[in-house]
Amino acid sequence: MDKIKIFSPATVANVSCAFDVLGFALSNVGDEMTFRKIPEKGLKIKMKDNMHLPNDPRKNVAGVVGLAMLKQVMPDFGVEMEITKGIKPGSGIGSSAASAAGAAFGMNKLLGDIFDLKTLVEFSMVGESLASGVRHADNVAPAVYGGFTLIRSLNPLDIVQIPSPSNLFVSIVHPLIEVRTRNARKLLKHSVNLRDAVVQWGNIAGLISGLFMEDYALIGRSLKDIIVEPVRSILIPLFDELKDASVGAGALGSGISGSGPSVFALSEGHENAIAVADAMRAVYQNSGIDFDVYVSGVNKNGIEIINS
């Protein structure tokens, strides 16, 4: 394979109570990336959008992933990577993860499909580390694997695929302000109250159980974060109003997507998800805040080849 074009999806991570350990992929938002073999060894990056991200591979999340893979394999060719961002940086729906995971997937195809999915996640985390200063996999894993993924352990990396209920949909509002993951992490406490931890563990277990059993009511009861959300929500305009409006419109529950500022809400059924999106839109409509709204199913395939 000398050329490949892919779609790398946006993702929702944390999913309220499961900080750094759970995420899922979206079906209709993401980056498009094209990879070509070139005679000159090394890696070239062309950004095909106006988001002002660096072309220097050493400073680009996709670039550092590609360089790491080339260093390990040492092929007799180089790679040119074109990236068209469909996800704004700092949006909270896995912008850096889409590029990092997409780079790992596309590079692997040109290198002869020699790495398994877990190894692609390992490479992808090199990009996430550049973006946030922390190796985390709750965005890149669902981008690579598709659907919901649980990061049971980072060292060693242990990824568990979680089934997605067939009628589960997500509504997302993205206020067009930027919240960098690196900065949002600085707000977090380094220790938590044991009582709060017990509540959070119960919610995580309930959420995972609800996904397995397709128990939408249990999913809704479990979408509660009493540790991270109270701290990070101060960065998101009208956050409480968004949550109230979502639940009032029929959402199972809602929370911060990743480190924000996007807010997600899960719903049973596409029509409910559209109604929830309309309610979210109404909160921001007259606020003077620019925003985007998305409605998506859960993308069970992850990164996909557009053509090659």
Walk me through this protein's architecture:
This protein has 2 domains: 3-163, Ribosomal Protein S5, domain 2 (2-Layer Sandwich), CATH 3.30.230.10; 168-297, Alpha-Beta Plaits (2-Layer Sandwich), CATH 3.30.70. The protein contains 10 helices and 11 strands. The chain has helices spanning 61-73, 95-110, 117-132, 140-145, 181-185, 194-213, 216-222, 229-232, 239-248, 270-285; strands at 3-13, 22-38, 43-47, 78-84, 148-154, 157-162, 168-175, 253-256, 263-268, 291-297, 304-307. The strands form 2 sheets. Strands 1, 2, 3, 4, 5, 6 and 11 form a 7-stranded mixed β-sheet that branches. Strand 8 (253-256) and strand 9 form a beta hairpin. Helix 1 packs parallel to helix 2, helix 1 packs across helix 3 (117-132) and helix 6 packs antiparallel against helix 7. It starts with a strand and ends with a strand.
